[in-house]
Amino acid sequence: MYLVVEHRKKRLRRCAWPVPPVDAAPRAPTKGSAMENLSLQGKSAVVTGGASGIGGAVTKLFVARGARVVVVDLQQEAGEALARELGDAVVFLQGDVSDPAVARAAVAAAVERFGKLDVLVNNASASRQKPFEEQTDDDWDLAMGSGLYSTRNFMLAALPELKKTGNASVINFGSGAGLDGQVNQASYAAAKEAIRGLSRVVANEWAPFNIRVNVVCPMAMTGGVAQWAQARPEQYAQSAAKVPLGRFGDPDHDVAPIIAFLASDDAQYMTGQTVMADGGAIKLR
Ligand SMILES: NC(=O)c1ccc[n+]([C@@H]2O[C@H](COP(=O)([O-])OP(=O)(O)OC[C@H]3O[C@@H](n4cnc5c(N)ncnc54)[C@H](O)[C@@H]3O)[C@@H](O)[C@H]2O)c1
């Protein structure tokens, strides 16, 4: 014990930034055995854009692993169909995620129906691809509203409930388009990189409440990507050629399990990170 304290004293003298006090109690591991943690049994989640694409795959996998989910999406028909398919484990809320009232309603629905909120997945996003100088204010409002402001709105609305659980996970969505500077993606890339910056700050600010905040940058063949591939075949071919694992991911089998891991207690020592779920296309340093 004496040696440890001495060692920390030396470190304190050398550090230019504040370090935790030497007697700060280490946070205890949350709970569960390693055999149980990947399960999402008993967790309550909100998944934005959860009616289709990656969000739809996340909703299905969360329910399969024991969670209950409030799905928020613009698409009424797809959302209702998913809720019918998954039964009592899913509540569907039709709405635009850029509206703060929708965020508050989603959190209220989780508490009313499932008693609490443990996991927030900010997956919804929409954008238009054009050269930067052709992107209008409306294009910027779409990317920022559906991506960045929705992420902010849902995090703010969820905070009081996430604090109550004392063991919560927020998963936000970035994109290789932002990391790589893909052409025609100015507003989208800007929104996605802002989400990463926001997530790193909030990961630090909310760590004392044991609320983890991580970002996933996926690559998966979904409806949105299929539309983009059709509109920009050359850009799509370039992206596909850069995937070392040789394919665009499958939302159900390649991407949703990574999000389920981040939501689970197996990821309890991980926060402020960007996780690339992209077949190795981009390596962060
Ligand atoms: N698929 C990929 O390869 C890829 C690559 C990089 C990043 N991403 C990110 O992953 C996430 C999911 O991507 P995807 O390919 O499944 O997208 P998608 O377009 O297939 O699905 C998005 C879902 O969000 C919903 N949505 C969009 N705007 C909304 C709004 N304003 N309010 C409510 N719901 C709204 C849509 O109805 C849809 O159900 C997004 O954040 C996307 O930017 C995806």
Describe the structure.
The N terminus is likely disordered. A seven-stranded parallel beta sheet has the order 3-2-1-4-5-6-7, sandwiched between helices. The protein has one domain: Rossmann fold (3-Layer(aba) Sandwich), CATH 3.40.50.720. By secondary structure, the chain is of the alpha/beta class. Bound molecules: nicotinamide-adenine-dinucleotide. The site of nicotinamide-adenine-dinucleotide has 29 residues, from α2, β2, β6 and α8.
% residues in beta strands: 5-15%
Give, in spatial order, the strands making up the sheet with the most strands. 3-2-1-4-5-6-7
- Give the CATH class: Alpha Beta
Structural class: alpha/beta
> Largest sheet at a glance?
7 strands, parallel
Ligands (ions, cofactors included): nicotinamide-adenine-dinucleotide
Q: Please, what is the average pLDDT?
A: 90
InterPro entries: KR_dom, NAD(P)-bd_dom_sf, Sc_DH/Rdtase_CS, SDR_fam
Keywords: NAD, Oxidoreductase
Protein name: SDR family oxidoreductase
Pfam families: adh_short_C2
Topology:
Layout: H1 2-14, E1 44-48, H2 53-64, E2 68-73, H3 76-86, E3 90-94, H4 100-114, E4 119-122, H5 137-165, E5 168-173, H6 176-180, H7 186-206, E6 211-218, H8 223-231, H9 233-241, H10 251-263, E7 274-277
Parallel strand pairs: 1-2, 1-4, 2-3, 4-5, 5-6, 6-7
The structure holds nicotinamide-adenine-dinucleotide (NAD).
Nicotinamide-adenine-dinucleotide (NAD) is lined by residues 49, 51-55, 72-75, 96-98, 123-126, 146, 173, 175-176, 217-220, 222-225.
